[in-house]
Design brief:
The chain is of the alpha+beta class. The chain contains 8 helices and 4 strands; from the N terminus they run H-H-E-H-E-H-E-H-E-H-H-H. It binds flavin mononucleotide. InterPro entries: Nitroreductase (IPR029479), Nitroreductase-like (IPR000415), Nitroreductase/BluB (IPR050627).
Length: 268
């Protein structure tokens, strides 16, 4: 699907090693601009409702998704750009209802306010087709435990592939200066039955995520990230990085809401 001009930037020849303008391999001049985008990618859950995303920005963003890696190079993704405010509103209504249902069930998950979806200037629905698991290492027509393991693995490959493309799109949007919002469309069948007809999605396909973006309604803030030492290990897993069940439970009870919604301090 092409929303912008037929003749797009992407049709230009890619830069090759040796082209005059490319800094040499390993140069910070290559790394720093990418890292600036990565650091500035932040989640916002409310956007400026008056802003209109220029049509070509959707192409720029989805062009980044198109280049993502995927298992077996299957590229198991579809993206639906939603520009109709009524469709946005109806999808937002679904999530607001889900938010209420979770509160009623006392799930204790700090569920965000999904009303911001209705007026998000940029709105892209991320869709996949689980039949693609057949493209990954699985045995055909086999109900064995062994094949269940392969199928689980294949589902992970599929989800990671779509996440790679989605993340690429988020970074492209962040590079344009937009704040982004990654919303999981839950796997539940009722999420699918609520959204498929609105978007004309065939039954075989599933909505995996919603990607909303735009200028944020309020200045966004950078959330806490684990320090580098805490996530990196060399040659062997550092046992000091292992969390016990109790520590994890404590983290979920006492820290999760802070790192999701509040600035937990210095981030570099
Ligand atoms: C796979 C994935 C699923 C997410 N699902 C939701 C979601 O359903 N609703 C939501 O409000 N945020 C969701 N988020 C956003 C995270 O809450 C957010 O990325 C996190 O709190 C870190 O904040 P940051 O993006 O500003 O770094 C999701 C993020 C990822 C990567």
């Amino acid at each position: 699907m092409t929303i912008g001009n037929a003749e797009r930037e992407s049709d230009a020849e890619p830069l090759e090693e040796g082209d005059v303008d490319l800094p040499k391999i390993g140069s910070r001049a290559r790394y720093d601009p990418l890292m600036a985008v990565m650091k500035n990618r932040v989640t916002a859950r409310a956007f400026d409702p008056a802003f209109t995303v220029p049509a070509e920005h959707y192409d720029l963003i989805l062009e980044a998704a198109r280049h993502a890696p995927s298992g077996a190079n299957s590229q198991p993704w579809h993206f639906i750009v939603v520009r109709d405010p009524e469709i946005k509103r109806r999808i937002a209504d679904y999530f607001v209802d889900e938010q209420r249902a979770r509160a009623k069930m006392k799930m204790k998950f700090p569920t965000p306010d999904y009303r911001g979806l209705a007026t998000a200037p940029g709105f892209i629905v991320v869709v996949s087709d689980f039949r693609w698991v057949q493209a990954f290492p699985v045995l055909k027509d086999d109900d064995s435990d062994l094949n269940r393991m392969y199928r689980e693995n294949a589902e992970r490959i599929l989800l990671q592939s779509v996440a790679a493309a989605t993340m690429s799109a988020h970074l492209a949007a962040a590079s344009l200066g937009y704040a982004v919002w990654w919303v999981t469309a839950i796997g539940q069948e009722n999420a699918q039955t609520a959204m498929r007809p609105l978007l004309g999605i065939p039954d075989e396909l599933s909505v995996l995520d919603i990607f909303a973006f735009g200028p944020p309604a309020r200045p966004p803030y950078k959330r806490w990230k684990k320090p580098l030492e805490e996530i990196s290990n060399v040659d062997r897993f550092d046992p000091a990085h292992f969390m016990s069940d109790d520590e994890m439970e404590d983290w979920i009870r006492n820290k999760r809401h802070k790192v999701m919604f509040k600035d937990a301090g210095k981030v570099d």
